[in-house]
Design brief:
The structure is a single chain. About 65% of the residues lie in helices and about 5% in strands. It is mainly alpha-helical. It contains 7 helices and 3 strands. Strand 2 and strand 3 form a beta hairpin. The protein is elongated, with a radius of gyration of 20 Å. Strands 1-3-2 form a 3-stranded antiparallel β-sheet. The model has no long low-confidence stretch (mean pLDDT about 90).
Length: about 160
């Protein structure tokens, strides 16, 4: 049997078959996530934000005026970032977020989005939707729903197993 590489194998110039279908699926997922993230980051660069900073601002916008404790922001991140403090430092220096200690429990630091952060996100909302549509709408509604379901099932399994 002569190996005929699929698209991923050809892209990464792999000359031997994958050992398992799961390996090929996993590597396809990583390669795709990287390609999509690079396109999104290209759009975010125009606004001077990293993917993680954009994610924090969106989380804070969703939290409203009450804000969120820093640890809760970390729990809600799309991709884990071990240093929420530095992310918030950068956003604070740019006037997009602010932190304060809670009077009830001085150990808790709550972060909130500022009007500057809200304004920036407001200008980004439509271009972000356009970017995501450009990247994925060709799949169609049915396939997108199937993709979402499959990814959620894979993620559930990842959370269940050590």
């Amino acid at each position: 049997n002569r190996f005929v590489p699929g698209k991923l194998a050809a892209d990464i110039k792999q000359t031997k078959p994958f050992k398992h279908l799961e390996e090929e699926a996993f590597l396809n997922l990583l390669r795709t996530a990287d390609a999509l993230t690079q396109r999104e980051e290209g759009m975010l660069d125009g606004y001077g934000l990293s993917h993680s900073q954009y994610n924090v601002l969106r989380i804070l916008r969703g939290a409203g005026a009450e804000g969120l404790p820093c640890g809760e922001i970390a729990n809600r991140m799309i991709t884990r970032d071990p240093d929420i403090t530095r992310l918030l430092d950068r956003l604070e220096r740019r006037g997009m977020a602010q932190r304060s200690r809670e009077s009830k429990d001085r150990r808790v630091v709550t972060a909130r989005i500022t009007q500057t952060g809200m304004d920036l996100l407001g200008t980004m909302d439509e271009p972000m939707v356009d970017t995501l549509k450009h990247l994925l709408e060709h799949l169609g509604q049915k396939d997108l729903k199937t993709l979402i379901e499959l990814l959620e099932r894979a993620r559930e399994t990842a959370h269940l197993r050590p």
